[in-house]
């Protein structure tokens, strides 16, 4: 016999009035995420009455999928319907089922920054480490989008060491996007602070190249290795001098393409890749963190760069 939900959820979804789908702009993550089946359409707009009618009287499977393997839970999560998410979970829908793009409801809710949906899914045991088609986890998207969601995912044991396509850990993404608060949250967990991504660069090298003093200090305080060498033979120490020299001389230096966001993932401009060059320089951690005064840096840079083989 079918279950009929008669109790009051913490969010009180039985009394919920759904918003008109036409009255809301579609976020970029929902591009192409238009529900097709009646069940999915009703779930996407929070039509509790319609969904219950289909589940109870029409014998519709709560896990029914569309041609892209999306369930009603995917649509409810993507369109920010926490009451509907609670209802579907009460009817025992599959919380971790993947759609054609390997996206779970949790990943979709995180992409779209629906904090209430994320909270409900996590409280009901959603897998925090499920990976999207590009190997991004929900935590990768939270680093890019939402500090609160990132904190909640970390509170539910999200893996901080998992690498997405290109070698990006959540910490590396936080440094790439200069998300200081999220970086601090991640560093309170067990992270690989010296993990390498494109061009064999560490988070510290990226912070030095971006001349982000606060991020540099944070990473050094947490034990980041300043002597790791990238594919160009350069360390964070050598980049600290070279970046100062570029600022003073207005001279562009050798370039390794940094990632840009294309769609849901990071991508690279590979047309302007540079030739590896070696500049072995010895500097102290304190000098890196402080980014030396202009005149001192200029004199030091000119002297050092004069010894390098370009």
Automatic annotation (TrEMBL):
Under the heading Pfam families, the entry gives: Ank, Ank_2
Which InterPro entries does the UniProt entry name for this protein?
A: Ankyrin_repeat_domain, Ankyrin_rpt, Ankyrin_rpt-contain_sf
Q: Which SMART domains match?
A: ANK
**What keywords were assigned to this record?**
ANK repeat
Q: In the UniProt record, does the keyword Lyase occur?
A: no
Source species: Nannospalax galili
Q: What is this protein called?
A: Uncharacterized protein
Residue windows of the ANK repeats: 68-100, 101-133, 166-198
Question: Which PROSITE patterns does this entry report, sorted A to Z?
Answer: ANK_REP_REGION, ANK_REPEAT
